[in-house]
TrEMBL record:
Catalytic activity field: D-glyceraldehyde 3-phosphate = dihydroxyacetone phosphate
Keyword Cytoplasm: yes
GO CC annotation terms, alphabetical: cytosol
Residues annotated as catalytic: H96, E165
Gene that produces this protein: tpiA
InterPro entries in the cross-refs: Aldolase_TIM (IPR013785), TIM_sf (IPR035990), TrioseP_Isoase_bac/euk (IPR022896), Triosephosphate_isomerase (IPR000652), Triosephosphate_isomerase_AS (IPR020861)
GO BP terms in the entry: gluconeogenesis; glyceraldehyde-3-phosphate biosynthetic process; glycerol catabolic process; glycolytic process
Principal subcellular localisation of the protein: cytoplasm
Domain of life per record: Bacteria
Subunit structure: Homodimer.
This protein's name: Triosephosphate isomerase
Enzyme class: isomerase
Residues forming coiled coils: none
Locations listed in the record: Cytoplasm
Length: 241
């Protein structure tokens, strides 16, 4: 039985005060949310602590946007898994295209971060997806298969979420057509040894397209950027029909 997982990736938005204000608007809306939906918020590192306190005892899980593979060490600007688990972090986004594009993330470093997350009991959300150029060149399938093959070496597929995020659909309002997202997610599932790994779609998910996206049989949830920043908008997504 595949789990439904809906995560808000706040990227580099929301101070502690703004995160707290978001919760005031968002938390009451969860009364309508079916209990089988896992709801995750992934704020910036500095906002994790205050959210952890405010979410204690609630159904909302906390996710980080990255983590380092070492237990500790001289890695300026990085964060260790134990620093995250100490404040109740249960998930971590790994290999987001913005990390791959701007910060030199490779399939090899993605694999190390996935292993480190699992070592500490954190469920990694592995992001894969093609650029517009790769799509136009007909390379979507081969690129995604390669990202999965390299990223998932020695990874336990019983503690894993995957997000299919076509880069050209991120932050552009240009959502991947839901049937096409369903097709690619089916391809991703065909590459896995565990067919129950939840696979999300990400890329311009909004309040007005979530119902159609979630109606697709292969799609198990969403990784939401911009539309997760406003309580009513994220609430509508979490409470999709
Ligand atoms: O992690 C989230 C994705 O990058 C999608 O971002 P977006 O919903 O703003 O397009």
């Amino acid at each position: 039985m595949r789990k439904i997982v809906i995560a808000g990736n706040w990227k580099m938005y929301k101070t502690q005060a703004e995160g707290t204000e978001f919760l005031q608007g968002f938390m009451p809306t969860l009364e309508e949310t079916p209990p089988d939906r896992e709801v995750i918020l992934c704020p910036p590192f500095t906002t994790l602590g205050i959210l952890s306190k405010n979410l204690h005892g609630s159904r909302v899980q906390l996710g980080a946007q990255n983590l380092h593979w070492a237990d500790a060490g001289a890695f300026t600007g990085e964060i260790a898994p134990a620093m995250l688990t100490e404040i109740g972090v249960r998930y971590a986004i790994i290999g987001h295209s913005e990390r791959r594009q701007y910060f030199g993330e490779t399939d090899e470093t993605v694999n190390k971060r996935l292993k480190a997350a699992q070592k500490y009991g954190i469920t990694p959300i592995l992001c894969v997806g093609e650029s517009k150029q790769q799509r136009d060149a007909g390379e979507t399938e081969s690129l995604i298969i390669s990202q999965l093959e390299k990223g998932l070496v020695d990874i336990d597929q019983n503690n894993l979420v995957i997000a299919y995020e076509p880069i050209w659909a991120i932050g552009t309002g240009d959502t991947c057509e839901s049937k096409e997202a369903n097709r690619v997610i089916g391809l991703i599932r065909s590459q896995l040894s565990n067919p129950d790994v939840p696979i999300q779609y990400g890329g311009s998910v909004k309040h007005d397209n979530i119902d159609e996206i979630m109606a697709q049989p292969e799609i198990d949830g969403a990784l939401v950027g911009g539309a997760s920043l406003e309580p009513a908008s994220f609430a509508r997504i979490v409470n999709y029909k």
